[in-house]
Design goal:
Elements (H helix, E strand, L loop, with lengths): L10 E5 L4 H12 L3 E6 L9 E4 L5 H11 L5 E4 L9 H22 L5 E5 L11 H8 L4 H10 L1 H4 L3 H19 L5 E7 L2 E2 L3 H8 L1 H6 L8 E2 L1 H10 L11 E4 L3 H7 L4 H16 L5
Parallel strand pairs: 1-2, 1-4, 2-3, 4-5, 5-6, 6-9, 7-8
Helix pairs in contact: 1-10, 3-5, 3-7, 4-7
The protein binds nicotinamide-adenine-dinucleotide (NAD).
Nicotinamide-adenine-dinucleotide (NAD) binds next to α1, α3 and α8.
Length: 284
């Protein structure tokens, strides 16, 4: 029997490789023997087999990047993302429209055995409530049409982050089924609060105590590698029967809320205390 978790002889592309979960994922794949190529709009310090600059807000740059890196990958990780402190339409561009374009190009070009892993968020777990609208967005024919849909649904887009993360989960499920006959898998993870360069933006948007209130039963934030390992697992041969799956990586927070063993009322009280502190300038 071979080691199904090994990346020896496998080529992986990490989109969003500069920092946080993407950087951790790149390091882990290298540790497991894989050849890692990166894409980002910021040049990473890490030694990668190649690096391609791309601002994922710009469709022309995505086209150029796809032409440069090709689509014949064993594993693609889409780890790029923007938080809700950025303009909502930029958030939709990077988190969803660019992701869809990259993943669709990759799954069209991959050989059987290839796999894609994307990062959603526990912020997207209410995706069922927008199934019809998000299906409409997913079915728009191209990048411009998708952005036009967003511009026509600004109320629903709201701050951009939640809808983009809900859309990732539904997209993952749909594409997984659509490409399953090609022997390609598509999965995503939904992280809970994680210590990465994005965290200060979440704290700014929601208040630090709100983030702290929802850390989950382990009472701490995850490290970036604790998201990298599950991503790397999903794109490994060890996950060969897993596709269309949203892996919730949240230290048991959802398990606790579903069973009533996490006291949501107490969490909301902690969060509301933050709002009061925030108003008096004591929140961060
Ligand atoms: N940190 C958390 O608590 C948390 C929780 C749930 C989900 N997430 C998601 O995890 C993913 C990774 O975020 P992270 O926490 O590692 O933060 P991060 O900011 O370290 O990583 C985001 C990466 O995306 C890249 N990026 C952003 N905009 C880009 C653009 N326009 N073009 C190209 N690259 C771009 C950044 O340079 C960076 O490498 C994101 O999708 C984020 O929404 C984070």
């Amino acid at each position: 029997m071979e080691n199904a978790f090994s990346y020896a002889g496998r080529r992986a592309l990490v989109v969003g490789c500069y920092s946080g979960m993407g950087a951790a994922t790149a390091e882990i794949v290298q540790l497991l023997g894989g050849e890692v190529h990166g894409v980002d709009y910021k040049q990473p310090d890490a030694a990668l087999a190649s690096f391609t600059t791309c601002d994922l807000r710009d469709e022309a740059q995505i086209d150029a990047m796809l032409a440069a890196v090709g689509t014949d990958w064993d594993a693609v990780f889409y780890c790029a993302g923007l938080p809700q402190t950025h303009p909502p339409l930029d958030v939709m561009r990077v988190n969803f429209m660019a992701m869809r374009k990259v993943v669709d190009a990759m799954t069209a070009g991959m050989k059987p055995g290839g796999a894609v892993a994307i990062i959603s968020s526990n912020a997207g777990l209410q995706f069922m409530s927008h199934m019809a609208e998000i299906t409409e967005l997913i079915e728009t024919p191209d990048f411009d049409a998708g952005m036009a849909w967003c511009e026509g649904h600004l109320d629903l887009v709201n701050e951009g982050y939640t809808l983009s993360k809900e859309a990732i989960i539904i997209f993952t499920m749909r594409r997984a089924i659509e490409v399953v006959g090609k022997g390609i898998r598509v999965n995503c993870i939904s992280p809970g609060p994680t210590s990465t360069p994005m965290m200060p933006d979440f704290e700014k948007a929601a208040g630090k105590k709100v983030i702290d209130a929802f850390v989950g039963p382990m009472e701490r934030r995850a490290e970036a590698a604790e998201m990298g390992w599950p991503l790397v697992f999903l794109n490994s041969a060890g996950a060969s029967f897993i596709t269309g799956f949203n892996l919730i990586v949240d230290a048991g927070f959802v398990a606790g809320t579903m069973t009533g063993l996490v006291d949501l009322e107490a969490l909301f009280n902690r969060a509301f205390a933050d709002v009061a502190d925030h108003a008096t300038g004591d929140g961060e």
